Amino acid sequence: MDDKMNAWLYDILNSIDEIESFFEDKPMDFLEYQKDIKTKRAVERNIEIIGEAVNRILKENPDFKIENSRNIVGTRNRIIHSYDNIADDMIWSILINSLPKLKLEIKSFLQKGTVYNSVQAQSRIVLSRHLPHAKRCFMQL
Predict the structure, then answer these.
(1) How far apart are CA 23 and CA 92, in angstroms?
(2) Distance between CA 97 and CA 52 in Å, rounded?
(3) Is 68 left (phi over 0), alpha (psi -120 to 50) or beta?
(4) Into how many domains does the chain fold?
(5) What range does the domain containing 70 cover?
(6) Which positions are annotated as active-site residues?
(7) Cα torsion at 40, 100, 23, 112 (round to 10°)?
(8) Whole-prediction pTM
(9) Which of the two residues, 125 and 28, has the higher pLDDT score?
(10) Phi and psi for 115 in degrees, rounded to 5?
């Protein structure tokens, strides 16, 4: 697996981990989730990232099999382009039912890859992807 594919898989895994971190110090309660606009928006943003990463993976390698990949990309598109039609219960269902399965699947892909066990390699991937963009942003200021 090449660095781009690994980076996108790590983006998915990191987004899932970040979503899980929003509920570390409190129970996963739907009514509380509905009241917490910051958490809702943060979760939606991470689902957008997951969907974009899956989309990039599929564009790079259409034969790469991620369960429900079209639904994941579709959800991303819906959040971005039809933000006023996003139901809290739909997002909640994704959190409870889909993300745990997706996390296991992505971890499995990464374990089969060549850089999963190398923290140094993972850092190199993340830095190589983000530094050029950060440099461009800095240069525009």
Answers:
(1) 12
(2) 20
(3) left
(4) 1
(5) 3-116
(6) 76, 81
(7) -110
(8) 0.79
(9) 28
(10) -110, 5
